């Protein structure tokens, strides 16, 4: 478990939960209960919508609190005094690189985050909306969070369209009020972020590597194998569940298992 003490990130996390709870209130109270007061579909939609909200909250909380893949610091301090004076101190030593900020060696695809102040394995980017880096261990939950937000947005739009097509005869909802409901639809903008995350996973290229124009890390690896690395080795049906853990055996391999 980890929590980054960044004021901007903490505010963004609070704003995220406030937006989700407000959207839940609007959709439940003003769209479902107001337009389907005497229908058996009302309790069904309330339960279904809030189930997605619950899964969204679990995925977001795990993305916030889980260690994204922090590279551990060595027990014995490494002398990097000579490297600080060199211009090419970031050169590769085999596939490993050296970080003079953390003063340690880091594995391939690890990068230093200036906000977390540590090197993160397979770091994609630092996201203020989860107040954490998106890395090797929490990218699955960040992707789930985006998928659930998209699902809620599409679900709310679907309910709005249903309320237009089948208006409640006893509700006296005019067109202006019905159109105002559309203003409460949320989350459509995260579709672009979700597509970007899927591209980063399926093409094995993080956002940092894309900026550095390094290209795919393993261009010939199957797409399902790349998804399994992020979502876990279990059945694909379990990939959408925030309670399904990653492959613990894979992640528990020591990062510094040899003397440096």
TrEMBL record:
It is a multi-pass membrane protein. PROSITE patterns: DHHC. InterPro entries: Palmitoyltrfase_DHHC, PFA4/ZDH16/20/ERF2-like. Its EC number is 2.3.1.225. The chain crosses the membrane at residues 12-33, 39-59, 145-166. Residues 95-213 form the Palmitoyltransferase DHHC domain. The keyword Acyltransferase applies. It is an enzyme of class 2 (transferase). It comes from the Eukaryota. GO terms for molecular function: protein-cysteine S-palmitoyltransferase activity. Keywords: Acyltransferase, Membrane, Transferase, Transmembrane, Transmembrane helix. The keyword Membrane applies. It is found in: Membrane. It catalyses: L-cysteinyl-[protein] + hexadecanoyl-CoA = S-hexadecanoyl-L-cysteinyl-[protein] + CoA. Pfam families: DHHC. GO terms for cellular component: membrane. The DHHC domain is required for palmitoyltransferase activity. Belongs to the DHHC palmitoyltransferase family. This is Palmitoyltransferase. It comes from Anopheles darlingi.
